[in-house]
Structures are given as C-alpha cells and as structure tokens.
TrEMBL record:
GO terms for molecular function: RNA polymerase II general transcription initiation factor activity. The lineage of its organism: Eukaryota, Metazoa, Chordata, Craniata, Vertebrata. Belongs to the WD repeat TAF5 family. InterPro entries: LisH, TFIID_NTD2, TFIID_NTD2_sf, WD40/YVTN_repeat-like_dom_sf, WD40_PAC1, WD40_repeat_CS, WD40_repeat_dom_sf, WD40_rpt. This is Transcription initiation factor TFIID subunit 5. Homodimer. Component of the TFIID basal transcription factor complex, composed of TATA-box-binding protein TBP, and a number of TBP-associated factors (TAFs), including TAF1, TAF2, TAF3, TAF4, TAF5, TAF6, TAF7, TAF8, TAF9, TAF10, TAF11, TAF12 and TAF13. The TFIID complex structure can be divided into 3 modules TFIID-A, TFIID-B, and TFIID-C. TAF5 forms the TFIID-A module together with TAF3 and TBP, and in TFIID-B with TAF8. Component of the TFTC-HAT complex, at least composed of TAF5L, TAF6L, TADA3L, SUPT3H/SPT3, TAF2, TAF4, TAF5, GCN5L2/GCN5, TAF10 and TRRAP. PANTHER family: TRANSCRIPTION INITIATION FACTOR TFIID, TRANSCRIPTION INITIATION FACTOR TFIID SUBUNIT 5.
Amino acid sequence: DRQTLVAVLQFLRRSNLRESEEILRREARLLGDDLGGNVATVATSSPGVAAVAAVPPGKGETRGDCGAGPSSRRESREVGSPCAARCLGGSPFLSEQLLLLTGAVAVGGAVVVEDQPDVSAVLSAYNQQGDPTLYEEYYSGLKHFIECSLDCHRAELSQLFYPLFVHMYLELVYNQHESEAKSFFERFHGDQECYYQDDLRVLSSLTKKEHMKGNETMLDFRTSKFVLRISRDSYQLLKRHLQEKQNNQIWNIVQEHLYIDIFDGMPRSKQQIDAMVGSLAGEAKREANKAKVFFGLLKEPEFDVPLDDEDEEGENEEGKPKKKKPKKDNVGSKSKKQDPNAPPQNRIPLPELKDSDKLDKVMNMKEAARRVRLGPECLPSICFYTFLNAYQGLTAVDITDDSSMIVGGFADSTVRVWSVTPKKLRSVKTAADLSLIDKESDDVLERIMDEKTASELKILYGHSGPVYGTSFSPDRNYLLSCSEDGTVRLWSLQTFTCLVGYKGHNYPVWDTQFSPYGYYFVSGGHDRVARLWATDHYQPLRIFAGHLADVTCTRFHPNSNYIATGSADRTIRLWDVLNGNCVRIFTGHKGPIHSLAFSPNGRFLATGATDGRVLLWDIGHGLMVGELKGHTDTVYALRFSRDGEILASGSMDNTVRLWDAVKAFEDLETDDFTTATGHINLPENSQDLLLGTYMTKSTPVIHLHFTRRNLLLAAGAYSSQ
C-alpha cells in the first residue's frame, strides 16, 4: 500500500528519524526525495514490509492474538505488526526495528526472519538503551502490580516473571552495565520458579558482553520467542498497566521477545498453568498442535496360521483363537477393517515381509494366544536382570521382541550381547567351510552356524567412547549402538561384526532405535537434532531440527510414520517421517526427558523425565491427559503391556511402578473447548492409578520390556553405594 508507506516516511521525517527513513526507503526501494504524490513506484518485493508498516496504532500488537489474520501468526520469528504499532507511536526504538527488518526475507507478503541468525545480529536487539539504574524499579513495579492483582489473573501474569527477568538481565550485560546486572540478578533470581534453577545457573555465569557471543543457551533464548498462554482479560490488564506507567522498557521486551498466545474465556488456575509450563521456551503455541496426526495402526498383512499337531489338541476347544490376528490393540484386533485414524498403507515405503518374518509373526500369534490378560486384579510377574560387577558402567540396555537376547552398552565403549535362553549365540562358519555345505538341505540354516563359536556372551568392539543407546532389529539379525564418539554402528548378529558406521552427528549420540518394521532407524544427540536413517544409506534420510537442547531419547510410533523425541529443553516433539515436519510439541516436564513409550494402539504417549513425573499425552488432540507422581528420581524406562492395560515405569530411585493405563485414559475430557484452550483438569492425586511399587535392593532401573506373554522384564546395574 503505497500511500501508507509514504505516510510513514513523512512521519519519520517529521520526527527527525532520518536514519530509519533511509532504511525503510532502501528496503521499499523508493527512490527520489519527493514525499508528495509523485513517489517512484514501489518495487514488488515490498508488500511484506509495507504490510508491516501499515498497521494503525493499537491494532494487532499481540502476536498470537486470536483476532489477527493468519499471516500475523505464521511464524514465531515473524517480524509482525508490533514494530508497526511502535513506529506509529513514535518510539525511539524504531531504527532498531527496521534494522531487524533489513535482515528479513519477504515470503508471500509476510516478513520472516531467517532461521539461523548471525550471533551479532541476534544480540544487537539488546542495544535498546534504557536507563540501567531503573531496571530494578521497572521489574519490582511490575512484580508489585502482578502480586496485587486478582487471584484469577495473578497466576497467569506470574508467567511473565521469568522471561522478563532473563531478558532484562541480558540487556544490562550486553550494554556493559555489569554492576547493575549483578545487583539485578541477586535481587530477583530467588523469585523464579524452582524448575528454572539450572537455566539460572548458566545465566549467572554470563557477566560480560563477550560471554554472550558463544553461549548457545543464550542464543536460543534470544532467537526463539518465549511463549506465554494468557487469557484476553489478563492480557488487557497487563497492557493497560504498562501503558499507564509508560513502562516502555518492559513493553518493548514483551513485544520483542515474547509470543503471547491469547485465548478467550476463563483464565487458567495456578495448577493448570503449573502442569504445562517449565520448558526452555515456555509453552507450545496452540497452533503447533493442530496438524492432523494419523495415530492409528497399519493393517497387518494377512496369511494363514498353520496349526501344529500339539496345538490342534490343546487349543481347538477354545475355538482356534490363533486364527485371529492378535493385534496389539485389544479393541481393533477383532476386525480386519482399516483403522480410520491410520495412515494410508503406502504413505511411507515399508520393507517387504520375508519368509522368516512371516514365521516369526506366526510364533508371535501363538504366544499371544497364551498371553496373560493384565489388569488391577492380575498384575504381571517381574523378572529383573541385574548386571553384577558392571564396573565398566552400564549405560544402555535392550531386549529382543521375542525376549531371547539382551544387550548392554557400556561406558568402556563395548557392546555385550547375552543369550537369555538355553540356546547359545553362534557365528556363521567361515567362507571356506560354507562352500562345503549342501545348500538344498532342509536344515541349511542350522548347518551354516559354527558350533565351535557357541557362547552365552559376545563382546562387540568398535566404538571409541561410552555407548549410550542400543536397539535390536525386529528380525533379530541386526543390532544398533550409538556412542559418545558421534557414530551409530550397525552390527550383524550372524557374524557379530560391525557392518556399517553411520557418521552424521558431530557430537555424542544419546539414543537410537529401530523402526517396528525394521530398515529405518532414528538417532538423537548433543547436536540438538534427530536423524532418520535407512540401514542401506550412509547419509540420513531426514533431519529433524527444532529442539533447543540435546535430543536425549527417541521412539518410533507403532505405525512407523512418526517419531517422538525427548530433549533436555524439557519438551517432547512428534515428527512426521514423510515430510520431516514437527506435528506436536508437548511441554510440562520440569527437567530433561529420558524415556518415551507409545501405547500399543498408537493413541497415547507416556514420557518420563528427571523431575520424576510420568506425563500422559493424547496424540490426536495434542493434549496432556494425565500426570503420574510417585517416583523420586529420574524415570529412565517406560513400557506399556502388550495389550496396553498397564504402564510400567522404572527409575533411578531403584523402583519399578505399575500404573493402571485403562483407568488413566478413560473418561478423557477431550471436548472442543479443552482442545481449543488447553484447559486441562488433571486429577489431584494419581495414587489411585498406582497398582504396585517394587523396590530393588540397590539397582536403578534403566530398561523395561514386556514379553509376548506379558511377563515384565526389567534390567539395571547393581550399584554398591
């Protein structure tokens, strides 16, 4: 809109903001000095900029304002209308705003700042020179206002304390007011919520401008807007207060560094807010959890189950239950119909079933027919594998789906595989011996194995640092391990040698896991990204970037179309394998996430973290639906029983706890209002969901696994302290 642009330029000239005028003129490619009617035509790339400047004062200053048009909420890094609201208010910070605009790219009429910011450009936003001596007064004034406001608004507005505290402190440090910064920090850091203590420790070490340049945490805080979800009434109250007090410094920070996601309706209670906050960048925007997710299960391939002779006698009276498909989901197992929430069968290419896979499925069905139905009245037996004398330091465990092998990753960089059945582990014979075998014989698969190599334990050498994650392939032919050395290795369980080293992460890799269909696997590490790989590609197929800290754990959804990642930024993200998009962001944990488990029917996700809480999420609606409190230390292991009736959690507090999953997920409040506002009402007490607590003598639990018949296996290394 050329007229508006001209009006803004005239206003800038009247206000003696020559520099800003020049920048805007350059940006809009306006030539000539005449600001009358005959201004040269505006170049086509300017609509984004013009749109930014053309917002009348007081309109749309909230980034997440429900009334704003779609373009104003397109991207958290969008330089939205706020700067316009301020341009027209004649604020002295205008030149700064427009400087920010010059680093922006116009995309379809919206100005989106590029994702990977140059450090100095990012920090330059702190150039705003307020009077350093007044910062404490500003902050305590706002604090007093919030503490004196009505209870219903106080809980919501208290969310502002932490992000404002951080940004004001950083602004003081950046502008080299070191003594004021120190005094500001000492006076107010004690007021912040306890779950921000670790972040504040990092912050307290940033005392000079130079420190800020290389600090990643700092850069994250600057580049990703802190998200606050506040009701419209509370927001209006805050806005009125800041405008009356003419508290520009705080208002600028709110505009510049916070994303306020406004909703209509009742303000949330302290308990509702506490359940959802605590991550590095505040809550997730509601927009982030709106995308459709196909959480249903894929249809199983159909093939007949041959009946063995002994099965004929034993099982026929029951009406041949084995002919049924024992789908993990106890509801969907009866019908062969496609689940309405399932992704299309060919949405992502999955490997063909080999004959050996079909045999394994048949075995699985037979086992499933003898499966114990668990419930509050029928709890599973727990078999605990304790690693004794694990002086090498046990760092990871996995158990094969058929519970025949167990693997341990150790801090001395070895991977050790044990057979937990009487059948010993054997390698394939040498090439010379293989050439002598009759390939047509029925027992050729037995003959190729070398009896001389049979042993209960195989040690795999290859990594050059502690091994943090291990995962067996579903067909038990391969094993993955990931390590501090930055590689993921694929081992053959036929030859017990390393087949491939996947190099992509430059830093330690914390976790890796095979897809439930094999072939694909995921890894996550200190470089803050998760990578999707296929066993036959040495480069990753997808890179999932978005977490603000290490990706500490990874999990495939049962239908293999999605991957969940947990991070030290205290959020969980769900990624779409097909296009690499992030389709869910879950906030609520108060510490780094260390365990993830999908329910067998694919609808729910359970997550555990260093805060000792287990949170339950409804994937379809993108909502937290439960909180299980009881553990007193990091929850390192979570697993649903095969039918999804029971959730088992294992922790560093040396206990395994069993929870009633059926009860936790029934009567869910997932009406439209809850989904729209994120108002969740968690029961006060999760004790009625706790079915049992089982102590070990002195063994932290780092892995859990339900056998095909619902026996619970747990594993950990005995610690003598």
